[in-house]
């Protein structure tokens, strides 16, 4: 910007006047200073009108400089304030004024402060330079940044300020253009998105945060009370200053991550994995403990643009119950992701992130009973999820339902999650237990990037969004499945997708009868599933998350011997022919899906 100012005699004169101006603002101001700079640049015209305008501008600047000089000589501290979000601005301005601060501000912020009865000095009176380039240049000026960055314990810094007539800023209060809200509010043009990228604001915030020993920087209106309380005190608490500086840098980092994410998507339509990216996380709550009581834990919300309005457990509303724990979040997430896969009214019961009961019925009460019946022992103390609104009748059934194991013990659950509740349904469900966590969630979005941490790095992959409608179930056996068997196979396939590998699911009539999970040996998972399904397994469908490595004397033959009607597996084994021969021997339908569903 100084190079631009020196491009003509008038501009050089304006720059010289600006150099003699001193300002001492105390809060962060991102935008208005740049606007004034634009106007001064426009004075570079060599015409007589331009020269006359330049004289008038310099006269006004001298008046402002005089005001600033008076404030400096009298030892009055100054606060610089420039805000897009003006929440509690009047409270802040009046509070600072009551503490004897002179307030420097810009544009709409200055107007709002004046309307609240606060005396304000316009920032152009400090810079002697009007904003320019449609507001792109306002605060990028030595009279602003020199006053922010100068160290008060360095004599040569203060000498330099004095030589140029620049005063120090003690408080800087700034928040940024609402880029995040703009680009997530709907369709926005590329040009409009670019214009909502703040430049002056982040620059001032970073400058003030770097010099936090001498400058208090505030980016969050919730910190205004703490700021005013701190300023009323007589001790200089450097820890408070450091915390504000940390928050300021984090604020800018999150802002920049949103800009970076948006620009990547604008310029790389087909590439899912950028060479570098940042995930902005925001603390939502500290948890009682982690996966185990000796581990500390916290829950963070993802502020990435890609997950805005994506739904899921992270944005769920808790209507009732004990605070969520680390394991509660994991289990609730597993239950919600599973039940969200189904279009028909469905109930899913989860224990330790594995679905132990799944049933779909037009009568959701029947679906609930069948889901619990699938494994009532595991369901006790588990998570129950529905993809339909919980009304009065369903709430009563959840509250009063007795365990199928003895017909007497009332079922206990950690969490109930659903997309909505009627007023009466919620009231009844709250009466089941004081600790029962009742969550209301939006259906999880598709097309998300899935991240998982490993020591020293992260794995990233596309989310597994495939449904039975997205794939082809190819019959490779002599006997083709009946329509009901094919329907059962698709239901089992959708269930097994959410069971930990090695995973086997046995299902019939849109109801999971048994499942085996997490075994290193697929044959052992199969045996567990049959043990749970019992006699109902005869004529049912069996789905495997991956191919069976062998057929004879292995899982395929054992499944056939137990009366399974149809088997769905990905295929891909070198022994596929053996599996086909085995199914043909027992008259079982064998379907290849071509899709594997590992889940670790």
From TrEMBL:
Any one Gene Ontology cellular component term annotated for this protein: cytosol
Catalytic activity: (6R)-10-formyltetrahydrofolate + 5-amino-1-(5-phospho-beta-D-ribosyl)imidazole-4-carboxamide = 5-formamido-1-(5-phospho-D-ribosyl)imidazole-4-carboxamide + (6S)-5,6,7,8-tetrahydrofolate; IMP + H2O = 5-formamido-1-(5-phospho-D-ribosyl)imidazole-4-carboxamide
MGS-like domain span: 69-219
An example Gene Ontology molecular-function term: phosphoribosylaminoimidazolecarboxamide formyltransferase activity
GO biological process, one term: 'de novo' IMP biosynthetic process
Signal sequence region: none
Pathway(s) annotated for this protein in UniProt: Purine metabolism; IMP biosynthesis via de novo pathway; 5-formamido-1-(5-phospho-D-ribosyl)imidazole-4-carboxamide from 5-amino-1-(5-phospho-D-ribosyl)imidazole-4-carboxamide (10-formyl THF route): step 1/1; Purine metabolism; IMP biosynthesis via de novo pathway; IMP from 5-formamido-1-(5-phospho-D-ribosyl)imidazole-4-carboxamide: step 1/1
SUPFAM superfamilies: Cytidine deaminase-like, Methylglyoxal synthase-like
PROSITE patterns: MGS (PS51855)
Protein keywords: Hydrolase, Multifunctional enzyme, Purine biosynthesis, Transferase
InterPro entries for the chain: AICAR_Tfase_dup_dom_sf, Cytidine_deaminase-like, MGS-like_dom, MGS-like_dom_sf, PurH-like
Similarity section: Belongs to the PurH family.
UniProt cross-references to PANTHER family, sorted A to Z: BIFUNCTIONAL PURINE BIOSYNTHESIS PROTEIN ATIC (PTHR11692:SF0), BIFUNCTIONAL PURINE BIOSYNTHESIS PROTEIN PURH (PTHR11692)
NCBIfam families per the UniProt record, alphabetical: PRK00881.1, purH
Protein name: MGS-like domain-containing protein
Species name: Oryza meridionalis
